[in-house]
Amino acid sequence: QVQLVESGGGLVQAGGSLRLSCAASGRTFSSYTSGWFRQAPGQERDFVAAVSWAGTTTYYADSVKGRFTISRDNAQNTVYLQMNSLKPEDTAVYYCAAKRSLLVRTYDYDYWGQGTQVTVSS
User: What gap in Å lies between CA 46 and CA 56, rounded to an integer?
Assistant: First the structure.
């Protein structure tokens, strides 16, 4: 069993930056693929980024490519999402997720956090 807790959300002006963190419990987390998703009001949850268990492979949605960076520190059981050049359309609740599968480019995850709000003002 893996439990995920996100932090780092908040209010930021357009063009600004935020770094989200996802702290995981469970000794096997370092062997899991991890990802970030987001859900804006009235919309479905969308994929944002994923990172392989070793941190060597990453995958991004086109909408965030070049602006967001996903990384992980397995010694700390933590996954990060560095978000730069934020836009109002990035406003959403951001969710951390983890899965046993080694496939980075698929979207079926086993564990989810509760989410953290990111609001970007224009």
Answer: 23
Determine contact, residues 84/117, Cβ cutoff 8 Å: no
Which among 89, 110, 104 is positioned nearest to 43, based on CA atoms? 89
Residues 6+ away with beta carbon under 8 Å from 42: none
Question: How far apart, in whole angstroms, are the C-alpha atoms of residue 89 and residue 22?
Answer: 22
CA-nearest of 106, 67, 77, 66 to 4 is: 77
Q: What are phi and psi of 106, to 5 degrees?
A: -120, 165
pLDDT tens-digit readout, 12-52: 999 999 999 999 998 788 899 999 999 999 999 999 999 99
Block residue for tokens 């909408």: 63
Conformational region of residue 26, where left means phi above 0, alpha means psi within -120 to 50, and beta covers everything else: left
| Environment class of 27 (CB within 10 Å of its CB; exposed 0-12, middle 13-18, buried 19+) | exposed
b (16+ CB within 10 A) / e for 64-76:
beeebbbebebee
